[in-house]
Amino acid sequence: MEVLGDLKHADRIAVVVPGADNSLANYDSPKFVGGGGRALYRHVHATAPGARVAVIAWLGYDSPSTLSTDALTSGRAENGARSLERLLTGVHRVNGRARFALLCHSYGSVVCGKAARRLAPLPVDEIALFGSPGTTLRHVSDLGTPARVWAGRAKGDWVRYVPNVRFAGLGFGADPASPGFGALRFDAGTGPHSGYLRPGSLALRNLALIALGRDTEVTHA
Hints:
The protein has helices at residues 33-47, 75-94, 107-115, 202-212, and strands spanning 2-4, 12-17, 53-57, 99-105, 124-130, 148-152, 166-167, 170-171, 184-185. It is of the alpha/beta class.
């Protein structure tokens, strides 16, 4: 985990929840959580120089390999959801004023889907699911969260080819970026599955605005 900014005095805290294939070996790559978290932090403060915002680039669960069967089930996500709850509970004890935004990429959106209900007592007001294969749930209301839930998928992301089914514990169900799921849909532009937090991308712009809580400025899909 890497904390960017002043966690204790922040008004808003964005937590980047990564997907499959994240590890300490590739943590700093722009394609993975460390590099992506830093890009988000820079963009947030370029957008709102005076805002008191901290970013947590979190790698607090055993991220599955895309090529493993673990990436087809929610087992790792269940463990990740418990770890995410512990993180936010601990941070809330340190800073009871800050609002949270969860930015959940790929398999990380399964983690956030599992965590959303148990995080409901905490001040989480934004959840963004992007490049998501699904959350195992059918509708945004099933998340059991009072937070605004966003979903986005870039044109060019291979995850659009993932079947949105769930059977015998395999698969993740409904596509959060589909109108039927009921999330607010943000424009993620064009790019690959690993490019949502790429500097200069439309997805990064909109995710930074979500992190800031500036919902009216987010461009919709």
